[in-house]
Design a protein that fits this description.
Blueprint (H helix, E strand, L loop, with lengths): L1 H30 E7 L5 E16 L3 E8 L4 E8 L2 E8 L11 E8 L3 E14 L5 E5 L3 E5 L2 E8 L4 E4 L2 E8 L4 E4 L2 E9 L4 E4 L7 E6 L3 E6 L5 E7 L3 E4 L21 E7 L4 E7 L3 E6 L2
């Protein structure tokens, strides 16, 4: 009898365990999604997500594939195709859900020549090898761009941005976010942040314009001996640290004298002064450093 009771209990526990496993597996499957859209030419993909991971990568197919997983039934993933435009959005269907339950993660494959419009509150956004105009509007989401090309527009409140081997044009603003531009091939760069740091580590293109501004924090520009640029750097209540062998402005442009007599500033040319570099801060430190 005793063995029989134990055996019966074991069989019952095993049945419950199997049922729970199947239930969990079914729940995970219902939270996963995958959708395919045939496109032509240069499609436009828009993504709206409150929190989670968004990964976009280029491939050589004339198709947009959207896959991923949502954290719970408190959110729904809606997709729609209108001609060559694909819209992807995460909608909250339960107002009382915890923040973790509202997460949705996306993996999106797009043709190389695609345009992107991404809005995300928190999490992170990664884009790899897409060659098209892009806009990003984030609150606290971190942004990582790699081997992209096009006109890039970035607006953030606190998320950081790392742009590696980016080409084209960049227009970016933030309140407290940091910006790192690594090995860029960009002819027009305008970056402004209030309390964040800015790092530009790459070559300056002929006739390129590079404008970097902040209120506080550090602006660092790294150069090589072959770079050619005019530089104007001013920090009203901070410091300007320069390692570039600049000479008086070769183009005879009159320097803009800061209103504050205590301001630190640098005006001059390196080599032929072909690019234009403007660095300005209210109380931060500006560094012009030789690349190792």
């Amino acid at each position: 009898m005793k063995n029989g009771v134990i055996s019966g209990w074991s069989q019952g526990a095993g049945t419950v365990l199997i049922a729970l496993t199947l239930t969990c597996s079914a729940g995970a499957q219902t939270r996963r999604f995958e959708r395919h859209f045939n496109v032509q030419g240069k499609p436009v993909i828009t993504v709206q997500n409150a929190t989670g991971r968004i990964q976009v990568r280029a491939w050589d197919k004339s198709e947009v594939m959207v896959s991923g997983q949502k954290a719970s039934a408190s959110v729904e993933v809606d997709t729609e195709q209108v001609g060559n435009r694909i819209e992807i959005a995460t909608h909250v269907v339960s107002e009382n859900a915890s923040p973790d339950a509202l997460r949705a993660d996306y993996e999106i494959s797009v043709p190389t020549e695609s345009e992107l419009q991404v809005r995300s509150d928190s999490g992170n956004v990664t884009v790899d090898s897409v060659h098209g105009d892009m806009s990003f509007d984030t609150v606290a989401a971190d942004l990582s761009l790699q081997d992209v090309e096009g006109y890039l527009m970035i607006k953030s409140i606190g998320g950081s941005t790392v742009c590696t081997r980016c080409a084209g044009r960049l227009d970016a603003t933030s309140i407290s976010g940091n910006f790192q531009l690594l090995q860029p091939s960009m002819e027009n760069v305008r970056v402004q942040t209030s309390s964040g740091n800015i790092l530009f580590d790459g070559g300056f293109m002929n006739r390129g314009i590079y404008v970097l501004k902040n209120y506080s924090g550090t602006i660092e520009v790294r150069f090589s001996s072959n770079d050619s640029f005019d530089v104007r750097a001013t920090s009203l209540y901070g410091h300007v640290v320069n390692q570039a062998p600049v000479v008086p402005d070769r183009h005879k442009m009159p320097p803009q004298t800061p209103a504050n007599g205590l301001a630190q500033s640098l005006f001059g040319s390196m080599n032929d002064g072909r690019a234009k570099v403007e660095l300005s801060s209210f109380s931060g430190t500006i560094k012009i450093s030789k690349r190792e």
